[in-house]
Specification:
Layout: H1 9-15, H2 22-29, H3 31-35, E1 47-54, E2 64-73, E3 76-84, H4 93-99, H5 103-106, H6 112-123, E4 128-130, H7 133-141, E5 153-155, H8 156-163, H9 172-178, H10 188-208, H11 213-218, H12 229-236, H13 246-255, H14 281-286, H15 293-297, H16 305-320, E6 323-328, H17 334-349, E7 353-357, H18 360-377, E8 384-386, H19 396-404, H20 414-430, H21 471-481, E9 484-488, H22 489-497, E10 508-511, H23 517-525, E11 527-530, H24 531-541, H25 547-556, H26 562-596, E12 605-609, H27 612-615, H28 618-651, H29 657-678, E13 684-691, E14 700-705, H30 708-715, E15 722-727, H31 737-742, H32 745-748, E16 753-758, H33 764-767, E17 768-772, H34 782-800, E18 804-807, H35 811-827, E19 832-834, H36 841-850, E20 855-858, E21 875-878, H37 889-897, H38 901-918, E22 929-933, H39 937-940, H40 944-950, E23 955-957, H41 960-973
Parallel strand pairs: 1-4, 4-5, 6-15, 6-16, 7-9, 7-10, 8-9, 10-15, 17-22, 17-23, 18-20, 18-21, 19-20, 21-22
Antiparallel strand pairs: 1-2, 2-3, 11-14, 12-13, 13-14
Helix pairs in contact: 8-10, 8-20, 9-10, 13-20, 16-17, 17-18, 19-20, 22-23, 24-26, 24-29, 25-26, 26-28, 28-29, 34-35, 34-41, 37-38
């Protein structure tokens, strides 16, 4: 457990989150040395550190194969435990490769029951420490007698997020390496050794948190069993008189902040400028010359004509206050091409410019790689920040209230809620700015609305943290002072819906990954009335003794006007409870309505279009009667809540924020219900959704904007001076028409925008093959179709040696083919994964990327945004063209309004999806891969040419029995 190899301040600076204050970095860098001499008394007097190795990730389906443990007393390991465990079956090959544990090793090992019994004796009831303890505890307690090992399990992973909230990784291996502890090797005994060293460092990290915080955490909700409470209580004893103040902690950390945009002045609204002061086109192009700005950012940079051309085009758009649609192929380097002229415009004119992305990966690339490099090299430096929606940031007012409340939300896990509170407290004490996304909080167990706020719910001037100490408004103030703001598509469109009240007044935008913005805008602007949202509103409002109504009742009981207040509260409470019951009846009626319609598929979720035929049915009449009752009940509850808020706010405004938010949300719920039930606004398409897998819950009613382009042309584009839409996939057969219509540019007039196509700088004809297996039977002949596809998939995987991603359009085909193909590949030593229900997409991604021979059957989540460079991904297979379902509500509505709706919308959307899937293959100049298209319609239908002419490489039509041989030869020639 020596700290001799612990991180230097420089190495620590690279291991923490960007924007971490230097004083925090310095403290982290000395933790290992301090841990060697610090004594923590009783809390380290007798603890057991434990780790396991298993045959898989689920304790319900997999088994133990090794258990290791060590008993700690102070800084010393005084006893050890290590045993293999004999599973009932063979150890999977990938587990042996990961752990080096073989079937020979476990052949004579004790059974799981015997091993766990010996472990129980070793532990002797002492507290057990494990990294991600839920995993190890799940496997131990799945064995008979396992629950007797210990009553106290301490998760060092969660504890590390409290002790060291600014680390970029809390993986055991990362922390062990950083702090110079024993290395991790995917063997239980080595991991135990590493955790023994990390454990004391975590205790030091906790002790470094602001005085009084340990007592605050230890005293939270004493009735809730929480394994960390004894640790916090003991550490609090070192400073018994300390009183924690979140306001003071925020003041101190902000005073230490020297990060980008922290102290900059507010920017000018570009509307106030007569025009922009911009570099000339030649000056922008010079930035991309061998001795230019970009070469200083990236030494060894090789100029690309396409990149220079794009940068110049972006500059011209800024100069003429016009818009651009730019399809830039893979390898062009489009982000640098737009960042350089946009940053120059921001610096020269003291304005803020915006970049909106779809994926977190691109946002992180901009924030942590490209913008820092640009800021170092551009004259005068550059300020920049990321901005997300309100619900991505902690509300410190709510955090304080929840920590001191008399109860924790009863429908979620109270211990996980306390852990989330502790993580956020620690993070807020060491973070001048930041959000919740990377904190590892188990939101399935924690009510997120209890710890976040919304633009309307925010107490603003009534809040002690407003504005600078608030992490929500602090981020917004930074954005208003930054040269460049990076955000996501969803917040951009929410800002449009909020009439520009969320984001700073930015008039120049780059919308990157723009191929997906129509769908994202439709999601953000949808009006949804869901059972889950309804239940959440009523749970948070509560009743006479619970929720915000219960709190306000207790707080007003001693008021001078208690009689008046109590009457208003009682009236609001009773009408709210009636509305809750009426909404429960409504969602039962939604389920009945969906049941009355013909089933559109065997999928879990039924998505039913509410068109004229449905509205004229008897079932709709029954539903409408229940819905109107719910509307009346919501109206009454909303009015009574509004009256309560208005009256109480005159004397005690600090008490009504939560009730006011509940009233607002009820009104929005009712407005949405009226919109769907009336169905008279022809700008929307109406539908209902029901989850067939469960008897109740998951029902919803939706109204989605039909024409997103119309809305953008009316509400956003006229206010923009320049919008740059960029993506690698925008054209269909070389035409931008589908995209420009989807985003509304065609409504502005052709003179307002220009389009530009830039070929990839990679050699697709050399490095990519497109194969069309044109003889696969029609999918309507299901038996023959699946048989042929099974054989093709086996041949492809065998020829490519794995590393194949097969993208399906429906789960039923995928799962049946997985059951057929997987055993055949397994016999040949090839692993195949499948995106089954409740399987984490992240786990599948990580597993695929870690094994160059692994293959994957996947659905929608992997069609775009999945990068696997090199030999990790050598082949993409598309069994069926991704047309939208003919029963999809949007397709149905378009179909009744336009004669050629399928050709105008469904066809180009499917083409773009195939282009996105093909884009998974070639991510670098040295990548090579094959796209296999197994839909015979590509060669039997006229529209097949639309797909094939849109792909970056020419195609080969090959009969399916010969595809495997062709791929073998192709692969041999590209090694």
């Amino acid at each position: 457990m020596s700290a001799s190899a612990a991180a230097s301040p420089l190495a620590m600076a690279a291991a923490v989150l960007p924007g971490t204050p230097q004083q925090v970095i310095d403290a982290y860098a000395t933790l290992a040395a301090r841990a060697e001499t610090r004594s923590f008394g009783l809390i380290e007097d007798d603890v057991v550190v434990l780790d396991t190795e298993t045959t898989g990730l689920s304790h319900r389906e997999n088994e133990l194969i090794e258990i290791a443990a060590a008993r700690l007393r102070g800084r010393e390991i005084v006893d050890r435990f290590d045993t293999f465990v004999k599973p009932s079956g063979l150890i999977p090959a990938e587990i042996t490769e990961l752990t080096s544990i073989t079937n020979v090793d476990v052949a004579h090992a004790p059974s799981a029951e015997g091993a766990v019994a010996a472990l129980t004796e070793f532990v002797g009831g002492a507290p057990v420490i494990a990294h991600n303890s839920a995993f190890d505890r799940g496997f131990i307690e799945a064995v008979s007698g396992g629950s007797e090992v210990s009553d106290i399990w301490i998760d060092s992973l969660a504890l590390s997020r409290i002790a060291l909230p600014r680390l970029s990784s809390h993986k055991l291996a990362s922390m062990a390496e950083l702090f110079g502890c024993a290395s991790v090797s995917h063997r239980a005994n080595a991991d135990v050794e590493a955790l023994c060293g990390v454990w004391r460092i975590l205790l030091c990290g906790l002790d470094d948190l602001p005085l009084g915080l340990m007592r605050r955490l230890a005293d939270m909700h004493p009735d809730v069993p929480w394994s960390y409470r004894p640790i916090f209580s003991f550490l609090a004893g070192s400073h018994p008189d300390a009183v924690f103040s979140m306001v003071s902690a925020r003041h101190d950390i902000l005073a230490a902040d020297s990060s980008s945009a922290a102290g900059s002045s507010a920017r000018i609204d570009a509307d106030e400028l007569p025009g922009l002061n911009l570099p000339s086109r030649e000056e922008v192009e010079a930035c991309f010359e061998p001795d230019g700005l970009v070469n200083r950012m990236y030494p060894g940079y090789e100029p690309r004509v396409e990149q220079m051309q794009m940068a110049a085009e972006v500059r011209d758009a800024l100069a003429t206050s016009s818009h651009r649609v730019i399809e830039a192929g893979t390898g062009v380097g489009k982000s640098i091409a737009y960042l350089v002229p946009f940053a120059q415009a921001a610096k020269r004119n003291n304005i803020t410019v915006g970049i909106a992305t779809k994926s977190n990966n691109l946002a992180d690339q901009l924030m942590y790689h490209e913008l820092p490099r640009l800021a170092r090299e551009i004259e005068g430096g550059l300020t920049y920040c990321a901005l997300k929606g309100y619900d991505h940031y902690p509300c410190l007012r709510k955090l304080e209230r929840l920590a001191r409340a008399s109860e924790v939300h009863t429908t979620r896990d109270p211990a996980d809620t306390l852990t989330a509170i502790a993580v956020i407290y620690a993070y807020a004490c060491q973070s001048p700015a930041g959000d919740l996304d990377g904190l590892g909080i188990r939101w399935r167990s924690v009510q997120k609305a209890d710890l976040t706020t919304s633009s309307r719910e925010c107490a603003r001037r009534l809040c002690p943290f407003y504005p600078d100490k608030c992490m929500v408004h602090g981020s917004r103030r930074r954005a208003a002072r930054a040269d460049v703001v990076v955000t996501n598509h969803s917040l951009l469109f929410r800002n449009v819906a909020a009439d520009g009240k969320i984001l700073p007044p930015i008039r120049h935008w780059v919308v990157d990954e723009a191929h997906s913005i129509e769908g994202e805008a439709r999601r953000q602007w949808a009006v949804t009335v869901s059972a889950d949202e309804s239940r959440s509103i009523f749970e948070r409002l509560g009743g006479a003794r619970t929720g915000s109504l219960g709190r306000i009742t207790r707080d007003l009981a001693a008021s001078d006007a208690a009689t008046l207040f109590m009457g208003l509260t009682a009236k609001a409470t009773s009408s709210t409870q009636r509305a809750s019951l009426a909404m429960a009846d409504l969602f039962d009626a939604v389920r009945d309505l969906a049941r009355s319609a013909r089933s559109d598929s065997g999928y879990d979720t039924a998505n039913m279009w509410i068109g004229r035929e449905v509205r004229e049915s008897a079932a709709w009449g029954v539903f409408a009667e229940v819905a109107n009752t719910a509307i009346d009940a919501l109206d009454e509850a909303s009015k009574n809540l509004a009256s309560l808020v208005e009256t109480v706010a005159e004397e005690k405004p600090e008490l009504v924020a939560d009730v006011a938010d509940g009233q607002r949300r009820l009104k929005e719920l009712n407005d949405g219900l009226k919109l769907v039930v009336e169905g008279t606004n022809d700008r929307y398409v109406y539908s209902c959704q029901v989850n067939r897998r469960i008897k109740a819950g998951g029902e919803s009613l939706s109204a989605e904007r039909l024409d997103i382009g119309e809305a953008l042309a009316e509400n956003w584009l006229p206010e923009m001076h320049t919008a740059i839409f960029a993506s690698a996939t925008m054209t269909v057969s070389g035409s931008f028409d589908h995209f420009t219509h989807a985003v509304g540019l065609d409504r502005l007039g052709r003179e307002s925008f220009q389009t530009l196509h830039l070929d990839s700088s990679y050699d697709f004809e050399r490095n990519m093959a497109v194969v069309v297996a044109g003889d696969i039977p029609d999918p309507r002949n299901r038996a023959a179709y699946l048989d042929a596809l099974e054989n093709l998939l086996v041949d492809v995987h065998m020829a490519m040696g794995g590393s194949t991603l097969t993208l399906f359009t429906n789960r039923r085909d995928m799962e049946e083919l997985f059951d057929r193909v997987s055993p055949r590949l397994s016999k040949e030593g090839l692993a195949l994964d499948c995106q089954k229900k409740n399987t984490s997409a992240k786990i599948l991604r990580d597993r695929f990327l870690s094994d160059e021979t692994s293959s994957l059957f996947a659905l929608k989540a992997f069609w775009e945004g999945f990068d696997a460079a090199g030999d990790t991904l050598r082949c993409v297979v598309i069994p069926k063209l991704p047309f939208s379902s003919p029963t999809d509500p949007l397709s149905c509505e378009r179909g009744v309004r336009e004669d050629r709706a399928w050709a105008r919308y469904s066809l180009p959307e499917a083409v773009l999806e195939v282009k996105q899937a093909a884009g998974r293959l070639i991510r670098t100049s040295t990548d090579a891969g094959v796209l296999v298209l197994a839909d015979s319609r590509l060669v039997t239908k006229g529209y097949g040419k639309k797909f094939l002419s849109s792909l970056p490489a020419a195609y080969q039509r090959i009969e399916s029995p010969q595809v495997g041989r062709y791929l073998e030869l192709w692969r041999a020639s590209h090694r």
